[in-house]
Request: fold
Amino acid sequence: MITTDVVIVGAGPCGLFQVFELGLLGLKAEVVDSIRQPGGQCSELYPDKPIYDIPGIPVCTGDELTANLLEQIKPFDAGMHLGEEVAVVRPDNDGFIVETDKGSQFSAKAVVIAAGVGSFQPRPIRADGIEELSDECLQYRVRNPQQFSGKRLAILGGGDSALDWVIELAPIAEHITLIHRRDEYRAVDASVAAMRQLVADGKVTAIENSKATRIHSDNGALTALDVKSKSGDEIRVAADHMLVFFGLAPKLGPIAEWGLDINRKTINVDTERFETSAPGIFAVGDINHYPGKKKLILCGFHEAALAAFAIKHRIEPDKKIHVQYTTTSPVMHQRLGIKEDDQ
Ligand SMILES: Cc1cc2nc3c(=O)[nH]c(=O)nc-3n(C[C@H](O)[C@H](O)[C@H](O)COP(=O)(O)OP(=O)(O)OC[C@H]3O[C@@H](n4cnc5c(N)ncnc54)[C@H](O)[C@@H]3O)c2cc1C
Reply:
């Protein structure tokens, strides 16, 4: 059990900036995200695209904004728990117990939900017989590449993840069949060229403009896939494992079960404290709703600042909280790890 001041659900830009605002007020945070890298939509959906409306930064990419936020929160040494989904938030004395699907447990005085449009989950494949397959034979994330040594693999998808794994697993797999519903790939040119070379070398078979319609298995073990082309031709592909990379889709997921006042897929908050209907549970960024809400990063940053003051007041109700400037406040400098003679 990790004991902390605040658990932040979501490591998107608003969750990361929440660490900073809490840190300035002397509060410690642990951050949990269901995906394996921080940055939320910025790193998952548009890592290389330019953002022009972050105050003071004329232009930066999604990845650059994430890297800058991580640099900015370094002094506060927040625990990062990536690849874990927060499944349970329940009251405990004056605070909360928070549990993830991987079994991590936190005891916190407050919770901030910075879950954006929800938890990113792999888009599932729909095909007859798919539900018969064991988790071992149908994978959406590769955890142990070595298990595919000497195996026949069917890799489905046409984006960067699909092609990256084709290229990485080709040297160890017996054979790979790549199945894509188009003949154009949403991957970097170099990966497409490398995949085409593997096809030319006979290590990979690429079946384009086609999709898997029926899965054949024996006691949970994959034996073959029926693959149908747009023109109606059908072929059977023998395989031991199928790896599916159809992209990620956000889902509100377990948050819907935490008893909060939900507005469609968002959480109602007030605009003074950004607190939800459950005292002690706050929500910032794209996940929250209030009159006039705009789903913009800078709005989430403002919300994180006010939520931090509200949390500080909740945790230390008898203390007066003054606004202090990072420019001049020795306390802020100490929290930021800046030595007075550095200035
Ligand atoms: C293509 C595109 C371009 C955009 N361009 C701009 C722009 O130019 N300017 C701008 O201001 N905004 C832009 N946006 C919007 C901006 O990205 C969002 O406003 C911002 O990402 C919201 O940040 P967030 O931290 O609230 O949530 P998110 O970035 O969505 O991050 C939320 C994180 O929470 C995690 N999570 C959810 N539920 C759980 C759970 N139960 N357990 C653990 N983790 C969980 C998710 O996995 C996710 O990583 C753009 C969006 C898109 C899609």
In short: The mean pLDDT is 95. The pocket of flavin-adenine dinucleotide is lined by residues 9-15, 32-35, 40-42, 45-46, 51, 53, 85-86, 114-120, 253-255, 285-287, 295-298, 300 (CB under 6 Å). DSSP finds seven helices and 22 strands in the chain. The longest helix spans residues 297-315.
